[in-house]
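Example S7 (structure tokens).
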């Protein structure tokens, strides 16, 4: 959809000819939608840090609630 905001949380490992032998890609076909959408998160480097931060927050809350 034109003007949509896309938050790509998927991570797929794709084999390639680089030194590592692979690259990480999201679930969204970035090159096909980048000129149509108003905003899109990159993969890698997108929402991963926020995902980890919220996981840590929820872990700490669970610990706190369990030790009352």
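Recovered sequence:
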């Amino acid at each position: 959809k034109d003007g949509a905001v896309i938050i790509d949380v998927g991570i797929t490992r794709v084999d390639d000819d680089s030194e590592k032998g692979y690259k990480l890609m999201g679930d969204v076909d970035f090159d096909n939608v980048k000129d149509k959408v108003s905003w899109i998160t990159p993969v890698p480097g997108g929402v991963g840090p926020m995902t980890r931060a919220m996981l840590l927050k929820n872990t700490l809350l669970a610990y706190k609630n369990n030790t009352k």
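Notes on this example. The first strand starts at residue 5 and ends at 6.
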